[in-house]
Write a structure and sequence with these properties.
single chain, Rossmann fold, 25% strand, binds guanosine-3'-monophosphate-5'-diphosphate, binds magnesium ion
């Protein structure tokens, strides 16, 4: 039997979006199925690995967590380079956070020359929303992205979101064949 490392496809996925929207919490929830209300602010960036099986294909997701703070803006292009997919997060209780996504997406498109799947996630759906679902869906559609709503706190849709992206990566390489 082959070890997973030999037989798996590797996809680099970048998380992006402003600070405090829940990027690190979503990753921790997905990888460890755990929520902590006491996460340290992400410094710079780091990445986590998750192995998933989709359509009998082993897939290794390299999930890059980018610090959303402005002082790290110069590092963004380094992290976006070579990405197979991107995972954008905003906070459903913060209309401002949604407005920041188009800027992030245009810098991804400038950096990653080929077309990659981008998923937009409205996080914190356990709280009272300040953004209508239709508004976020319309923006996602205009940006040519998929859209989902999640909660890192309750775990709602978290696994689904990452699996959706892994499937989209798989479809994307199949299109290229
Ligand atoms: P970031 O990585 O995008 O900067 P974090 O965001 O994961 O650090 O989360 C920022 C704050 O939002 C944290 O609270 C975290 O607990 C909270 N949070 C993240 N996701 C959710 C969610 O789905 N629901 C709720 N209710 N809170 C969430 P603190 O208080 O530590 O700043
Ligand atoms: Mg963080």
């Amino acid at each position: 039997m082959k070890s997973l490392g030999e037989s798996s496809l590797k996809f680099k996925v970048c998380l992006f979006g402003p600070g405090s929207v829940g990027k690190t919490s979503l990753l921790v929830r997905y990888i460890k199925d755990y929520f902590s209300s006491d996460l340290k602010q992400t410094i710079g960036s780091n990445f986590l690995i998750k192995d998933v099986l989709i359509n009998e294909q082993n897939i290794r997701l390299l999930l890059w967590d980018i610090g959303g703070q402005d002082q790290f803006a110069k590092l963004r292009t380094i992290y976006f380079k070579g990405s197979n997919a991107a995972f954008g997060v905003f906070d459903l209780t913060s209309p401002q956070s949604l407005l920041k996504l188009p800027g992030w997406i245009s810098s991804i498109k400038k950096t990653v020359k080929k077309s990659i799947p981008i998923l937009i996630v409205g996080n914190k759906n356990d709280l009272e929303r300040q953004i209508e679902r239709s508004e976020a869906e319309d923006l996602a559609k205009r940006l040519n992205c998929e859209y989902l709503e999640t909660s890192a706190k309750t775990g709602d849709n978290v696994e689904l979101a990452f699996e959706k992206l892994a499937r989209a990566c798989l479809d994307n390489i199949n299109i290229g064949k």
